[in-house]
Amino acid sequence: MDNELNEIFHQVTIRICGSLDIETAMGNTFEYLLRILPLEGLYLSYEDTSPQPKISFAIVSRQGVTYKAWDAYISDAARATMRELKTRYNSGEAVLLNNPDLHPELKEFSHHMLPVSHIASNLGISLTLDGVTVGALNIWAKNPNCFTRRHASILRMLREPFAIAMANIRQHHELLELKNRVTDDNRYLSQELMAVVGDHIIGEKGGLNEVMQKIHQVSPLDTPVLILGETGAGKEVIANAIHNQSNRHKGPFIKVNCGAIPENLIDTELFGHEKGAFTGAATLKRGRFERAHNGTIFLDEIGELPLSAQVRLLRVLQQHEIERVGGTQVIPVHIRVIAATHRDLWQMVEDGLFRKDLMFRLNVFPVVIPPLRQRLQDIPDLVAHFVSKKATEMKLQTPPPVDTACVAKLSQYRWPGNIRELENVVERALIRSMGRPSDLPLIFEPVCDCGAVAPTAAPVQSAEPLEPLDQHMRSYIERVLSFTQGKIHGPNGAASILRINSSTLRTRMIKLGISFRKSSHF
């Protein structure tokens, strides 16, 4: 008998430890055990750190090797029985269940875990390594009373090789998964870096001086930042500057355009999904929040985020954790959130389109970017920057010089498209200059070609100097606030006199740089 057991131990060890591929190792072992044990299949499981008590690793039968996760929806009675069995397994003894009438948990076990309609005999034992339980080994049969004490002795003898194989296979899979994640992240981040506008801020000592002061204040912290500004004003550049000056600059900087993702895909894009979570989910996918772990996530156009996704974003900000679509495991994420929008979020809150609690979470440190028409002094530097950038993209050996008189005329335009529009004007001028001698100055044609109407005749003289609309609005709001002694809402408040919502008035005051007086009512 000793020689026979030694031979069984030798043969099983060779097969189960002979390959790091689970299908190969389990298949070879099962074929051998069929010769010496009256089993129908072999079930190998491993302990998991999630709230679920155990997850199936592999099931092998005559139909081949399959994988199946532990079903979280088994009955409470069956779950209680499973906990009792686990206690018996952890004692180190083989657990023999040979009668389904005496052990009703066999029905639940086969229905939820095994690729058969029912089992009548089951023999199982825990797998331990260095005193730590790493999984469990079960064999089963369809007929009752199939297993004996001798079979239990054989199973106990095989604990060590199966435990070693289990630990090796798990470690191998973890390394492969880590390698795949690193490769995936490198590929993803490389694509992201190709799209980064750059960390050099044009106008940091000019029209963006106040903005840069705020950036220096908030960058070292983990505080959420809300960037407000018109379309094309450079919100992404500011977000990139905050990340680069933060303690997270070595971590990932993940950008999400909330308005560019279809609503039915927003959850899986932001939070990821588990394998099999829905039709077409062939593999596990890590979402943008998970990719941004230990870094920064930039949520551009946050006002376009659906209400359903706003709820889950609020959980990320409050609890710093996510759950993938179709998953139950809580995944901690250590990230900083920077959001941006050109929309009036306070008005959206009043209209029921944006959650008030999320607004308060995001609006901790707002940064308002002035439009280009309010920082015209930066146009010469911006033009020089874009000429150099676009010339490099067009593979021009020497960027053409810029006509300074022509640049001065650009300051007479209102720039509704902001910096993005100016960049397009520079690119068009470079395209039209190709083929001309390189020493001729670059000439910008009338900006009205970009979709705006530029006056061709002399402007009509007014009795009073004309002010920009923002300046006129600022003066009028300040007059009203002076009349109300700083009171914003309520009867006889500034919002009531102006006939606008008080939240909308606050947003406009921030945008126009109007300070809140101490006597203001919030």
Report on the architecture of this protein:
With 522 residues, the chain is of the alpha/beta class. It folds into 4 domains: 2-172, GAF domain (Beta-Lactamase, 2-Layer Sandwich), CATH 3.30.450.40; 195-370, 3-Layer(aba) Sandwich (Rossmann fold); 373-450, Helicase, Ruva Protein, domain 3; 469-512. It is 42% helix and 13% strand. It is built from 19 helices and 13 strands. The chain has a 6-stranded antiparallel sheet with strand order 3-2-1-6-5-4, sandwiched between helices. A 5-stranded parallel sheet has the order 8-9-12-7-13.
Explain the layout of strands and helices.
Blueprint (H helix, E strand, L loop, with lengths): L1 H15 L5 H12 L7 E6 L8 E7 L2 E3 L9 H15 L4 E3 L7 H9 L7 E9 L2 E10 L7 H9 L1 H36 L14 H10 L6 E4 L6 H10 L8 E5 L8 H6 L16 H4 L4 E5 L6 H13 L1 E2 L8 E2 L3 E6 L3 H6 L5 H7 L2 E4 L10 H15 L10 H7 L7 H16 L35 H15 L10 H5 L3 H11 L10
Parallel strand pairs: 7-12, 7-13, 8-9, 9-12
Antiparallel strand pairs: 1-2, 1-6, 2-3, 4-5, 5-6, 10-11
Helix pairs in contact: 1-2, 14-16
